[in-house]
Amino acid sequence: MTHLGDLLSALLDGExxxxxxxxxxxxxxxxxxxxxxxARVESARGALRRLPMLETPPGLIPGVRRGRRFLSPARxxxxxxxxxxxxxxxxxxxxxxxxxxxxxxxxxHDARVVGDPGIATFRxxxx
Amino acid sequence: xxxxxVLAAVTILLGVPVSASASDDQLAEHLASDAADEFHxxxxxxxxxxxxxxxxxxxxxxxxxxxxTSGPMGDVMATAAHTVMRAGxxxxxxxxxxxxxxxxxxxxxxxxxxxxxxxxxSADLFVVFDGDLPRxxxxxxxxxxxxxxxxxxxxEGRVFRMAALIDLDDSEVAMPAAPQPxxxxxxxxxxxxxxxxxxxxxxxxxDTYEAAGGGVQAYYSDGLFSFSVxxxxxxxxxxxxxxxxxxxxxGTWYRRVVMPDRVxxxxxxxxxxxxxxxxxxxxxxxxxxxxxxxxxERALLVRLWRRLxx
Lengths: 127, 310
Prior knowledge:
The complex is a heterodimer.
Chain A: H1 7-12, H2 18-30, H3 32-50, H4 73-91, H5 102-113
Helix pairs in contact in A: 2-3
Chain B: H1 24-32, E1 39-49, E2 52-63, E3 66-71, E4 74-78, E5 83-87, E6 90-96, E7 108-110, E8 114-118, E9 121-130, E10 133-141, E11 147-153, E12 159-169, E13 182-188, E14 199-200, E15 203-210, E16 216-221, E17 226-233, H2 239-242, E18 245-249, E19 252-258, E20 263-268, E21 272-278, H3 282-290, H4 300-309
Parallel strand pairs in B: 6-13
Antiparallel strand pairs in B: 1-2, 1-12, 2-3, 3-4, 4-5, 5-6, 7-9, 8-9, 9-10, 10-11, 11-12, 14-15, 15-16, 16-17, 17-21, 18-19, 19-20, 20-21
């Protein structure tokens, strides 16, 4: 039997859609193990919420945002998908830009060289 | 690609006999002199550059001020008024809206000539020095003043490029056939280019133009060698360079393609792409690259932004 695992956190965070929520609740109704696990998670969260708030000394941990919650599986998935998209955009080949047309550039260089003296000059009478 | 044809021009270099008391002024005079000789010649040209070797053949006819160079990879006809080039089955004329006058760098010096014989013809051997280094050796036919052999040396005194006539006929030269049809006339417009240096390794940025297909062309010359730098918005690497030889210069890497008469170099800077094409020697090339934007990748956020918003 497959237990709910991380779905419990998503359930508590209210992040399941109606279908997933019904299936999760149906599983909980028949699964003692998952009900106990859900109770432990709820209890732990409640205990955390009851802890006193302490002021962090200024500069102790720069940039730490207080009150951040653990990421739910749904959020982790969304962040992972976004990271993959960014990686594809940055690292992936993307649409090729315009490449030099070397024949045209060679002609343009040759045409400029013609008429100038020099050892590589294809000289007619100069203009 | 019609890469062999400009080097074919080494066969039509000089028009005035050279005295034994040559100097850099005389070199400029010889290079700039009009050549009225009529001849037909066929030759071989090759370059050896860091393990890359390329060989080609050329065929040159000159008569009445018209010079036709032709071969398997392209044809060019030059007259006093026009340069006409072949593209497929068609010819087109190319003119530049502006063209700075040619001048020879003072770093070159022509050593006194030595008499010699080549292909059974009386000739003179000339050596052009670049500072203390021999840079070019010519064997010039006395009767026609056409160079029979041209050797270009790198910074270590090794020949890296050589062109040699294997056949020269200066009697009863047939007039080159006029190219037909010539329907297109391309005028290359001058374009201000602020991003590329005025001087590179002793080469002066003579002119700047709009480049075919977008971007700009900066044409550099020291009077003896020349090259163009094409700069455009960063784009895809041309197919020719995807498997080209990578070579180091000034602490970074570039890709090059060695042709019989020239070298092509390509690289991508963070926001621009570059192609350099010319006949400059390897040591000059490395010095020139040091003065140009270096290869590099865009910052991650810039790449992301460009992918999303162009």
